[in-house]
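Why do we care about 3D structure at all? Because function follows from shape, and shape follows, mostly, from sequence. That is the central idea of this module. The next example makes it concrete: a single protein chain, its amino acid sequence, and then its structure expressed as tokens.
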Amino acid sequence: MSRAAKNLTEGSVTLLVGLPLRLFTDGVDTPVVTPTRLGVVLLAIGGVQLLVGLFQLQKAKA
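And the structure:
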């Protein structure tokens, strides 16, 4: 598996985990971390991984 494919896969999975946390855990309180904020962080990380994977894919084609 190429590095670009790995980043695209990890970014997609991270986004798919972060999105439900962001959308459906509003009002859930835990002692350490708020699931809604964790969802936002996972969405951001997943988006960055997707962008890096797309950049690597374009770079490999050129």
